[in-house]
Amino acid sequence: MSYQVLARKWRPRQFSELVGQEHVVRALSHALDGGRIHHAFLFTGTRGVGKTTIARIFAKSLNCEKGPTSQPCGVCGICTEIDAGRFVDLLEIDAASNTGIDNVRELIDNAQYTPSRGRHKVYLIDEVHMLSKAAFNALLKTLEEPPAHVKFLLATTDPQKLPITVLSRCIKFNLKRLTPEQILGQMRHILGAEAVEFEDEAIEALSRAADGSLRDGLSLLDQAIAHGGGALRAADVHSMLGTVERGRVRVLLEALVGREAESLFAEVGRIAEFAPDFGQVLDELAGLLHRIQLQQLMAGAAIADGPELAELAARIDPREVQLFYQIAITARRDLPLAPTQRVGFEMALLRMLAFAPNGGEGGAAPGDRGPASTGTRPVPPPIQRGAAGASPAARPADTAEAASRVSRSPERPADRVAEAPPVDTPLVIEDWPGLLERAELGGPVGQLALHAVLLGVDGNVLRLGMKAAHEHFASPPLLEMLGQRLGAALGRPLRVRIERVADAAESPADSRARASAARRQQAHDGLHADPAVQSLIDTFGARIISDSVRPLEN
To answer: Which UniProt keywords are given for this protein, alphabetically ordered (predicted)?
Structure first.
């Protein structure tokens, strides 16, 4: 006897055997047991979730010799013929290959005849959205008022393509995508019945790869059993799927959190030995970050590997998780543009190191950074100008920001600031725009400073005010970078704190905009007062377009 694939062998034959579609089963069972059976049903959903299977069970329930019933016997002649696919009164039509109006006309003509053996003649039209417009129009009348012995069961993966006139004539059931847990449970049941040895991690990887489709999952299961020589081992499954073990992805993230560049890229090399799909590795990394964020921000969230992630979740800042996640999904999108998948993957990891708080400013190797500190955060020590020695100056840490973050920046000459007397607060407030010019700020840091109002200096803390509309500039990495740049310009270590101010407060950017508007108005008034310009206006009936006036820059 030839081998029968698992997806066909384990296809449900009763409503009770269906997985994940309880809402559909309940409605159909009540309709069958209560005798309230509509003449047309539409089943929608992604591939491999049970559309055709439910339609066949429903046809069996309608025609079972002990029916109509929600629990067909499965042993009578009609039930066995439907299970074998040879029941003459169940007509399965593939709309993808029978799209034309002639096919529908033949269906309509045959629908007038009574069933040969069963109680109902059932038309199961799969991928019904593939029918032509003319075919749909020809079907409408029969679909609305079919003979009493005819039932239509329509199935589609793309209901948006169905005419509204068809949708309005059917009872519609949306089938759900199956969760990895539901697919995993069915795989365990099947493997136990088939007496196949398996590792839990192997079937967990297969259930995730199924992407909500039980049929896809069972097809992958067949392939994995063949690949592993009759057994399911995690290493074989990961090799077949081009994925990596979750433990290896955790090692990557631990190295990222610890700023251990050498360990990070050593692990990348070990992963590359298995020739994985690095897009899948990025997916696993993004999924890991998602689970960590759930554990951090949603107490009591049910996470499969929650206990294993607890220590890592305590070490990494929630904002850093968001940053890493955004970089991972952006890299996943851009991976086809990279020279090779590995290059794209490595650049994503380097980007995480570079943009992580305290991770990239100053250009030091990430692997040189020290362990995370939950107490004080050392800063680059000030030194005498021209002196070889340095006198360290520590500042108090903001423990809420310092907790679970890498906090030591390496001492390098370019990062050190010169020792100088404390800043005089009134003087700094009066010369805030000049300080920004002296610091030569550019890019996002410059935009942050230009839209900020200096409120004062409390010790080593620079208090900046910002309007609500501009608070998106104030990300923690940019605030830290701004403190370092301004500290270098003032000759003292600084930390920046943002406070919200009223819209009336004027920032350097507002001052520049006001001055620019004044110069533009002055230029506009000057043009109007110019006799030559006035002569042109009078002679030709011209007018000055205000938006085109630009003052000459000195």
So the answer is: ATP-binding, DNA replication, DNA-directed DNA polymerase, Metal-binding, Nucleotide-binding, Nucleotidyltransferase, Transferase, Zinc
CATH fold, domain 6-174, is Rossmann fold (3.40.50)
How far is it, in rounded angstroms, from Cα 5 to Cα 546? 76
Quote the CA–CA distance of 341 and 347 in Å, as a whole number: 10
Q: One-letter amino acid identity for 316? A: I
Question: Which residue in this structure is represented by tokens 């309608």?
Answer: 62
Q: Starting at the earlier edge strand, list the strands of the sheet with 121-126.
A: 90-94, 121-126, 150-156, 40-44, 171-174
Beta strands in 99-232 (DSSP E): 121-126, 150-156, 171-174
pLDDT tens for 254-304 read 889 888 888 899 999 988 888 888 998 999 899 999 988 988 888 766 666
**What gap in Å lies between CA 326 and CA 332, rounded to an integer?**
10
Q: What single DSSP character describes residue 16?
A: G
**Mean pLDDT, residues 127-135 taken together:** 90
pLDDT in tens, 370-420: 444 333 333 334 333 333 333 333 343 443 343 334 333 444 433 433 344
- Architecture of domain 180-241 in CATH? Orthogonal Bundle (1.10)
What ranges do the domains of the chain cover?
Answer: 6-174, 180-241, 246-363, 425-505, 510-548
CA angle 4, 9, 15 (to 5 degrees): 160
Question: Following CA atoms 123, 128, 134, 135 in sequence, which dihedral angle do they give, to the nearest 10 degrees?
Answer: -20
What CA–CA distance (Å, rounded) separates 301 from 252?
24
**Structure confidence by residue, pLDDT tens digits, 483-512:** 888 877 777 788 888 888 887 777 787 777
